[in-house]
Amino acid sequence: MSGLHIPVGGPDGSRTSHAESLLAPNPSPMTLDGTNTWIIGTIDAVVVDPGPADESHLRRLAGHLSGRRVTQILLTHGHHDHSGGARRFAELAGAPVRALDPRHRLGEEGLGEGDVVTVDGLEIHVYGTPGHSFDSLCFWLPADRAMLTGDTVLGRGTTVIATDGHLADYLRSLDRLRAAAESLEAVALLPGHGPVLPDPIGALDGYLAHRRQRLDQIRAARREGARTPREIVEIVYADVDPELWPAAEMSVRAQLDYLERL
């Protein structure tokens, strides 16, 4: 696909014409291969999600950017696996940190819906996409027709609705991204975890269908007598690794809250 190159071997080094990823060494069932740190720009650069407070990753990132001036650090949201290393990397790069949540900013400027960040002759358009967390943002890179999605859409599997998120917001955000992918003719989603997705509409349709299916399954589990989130997990997520059941229970709680508000 024009402008898109996905190397064999996983997310590390994935790139479009103007963005590339470095993979943080924090793999887990929740973070997949690890956190994707995205770099945009070839002379000056913007860094999106420096990742966790892992000194080896932050120094690798700084070394990779040697010769480029980092103008800004942007956060898709404030969860530690994306933001934990931001303050330290800001020290290494001499750049401010911009985020929706003031607690994660370093500098005077925040970041929110409708903002446009410029670097190296490129524009980065900010989309407010709450749901996974209250402060989730996505970044549209028109030059590459690519959307950086943080944890709103992952390269594999589906996203947990965290305790600071809400399913109703998340469904609205997915609908918005689906409409944007179509109207903007997006060719790639660049996630915060996992590989690049070269079929944005297909990926978003899949996410929306999955959410509808899970809600139907939870309704059915309740009809069968399941009452607590744990009981629902044992029915609906029976084929899922039990190591992921705590995250599944978090999602079930979010879905029950959503259903109770309908």
CATH topology (level 3) name: Metallo-beta-lactamase, Chain A
Strand content: 15-25%
Continuous helix count: 7
Number of domains: 1
Low-confidence stretches: none
Helix content: 25-40%
Global shape: globular
What is the architecture at the second tier of CATH? 4-Layer Sandwich
Count of extended strands: 12
Subunit organisation of the chains: single chain
Can you walk through the features of this model?
By secondary structure, the protein is α/β, with parallel strands linked by helices. It has one domain: 4-Layer Sandwich (Metallo-beta-lactamase, Chain A), CATH 3.60.15.10. 34% of the residues lie in helices and 20% in strands. The chain has 7 helices and 12 strands. It has helices spanning 55-64, 80-83, 86-93, 167-183, 200-223, 229-236, 245-261; strands at 4-5, 15-16, 19-23, 36-40, 44-48, 69-74, 97-98, 116-119, 122-128, 137-141, 146-150, 188-191. It has a 5-stranded mixed beta sheet with strand order 3-4-5-6-7. It has a 5-stranded mixed beta sheet with strand order 8-9-10-11-12, with no helix packed on it. A two-stranded antiparallel sheet has the order 1-2. Strand 10 and strand 11 (146-150) form a beta hairpin. Helix 1 packs parallel to helix 3. The radius of gyration is 18 Å and the shape is globular. The mean pLDDT is 94.
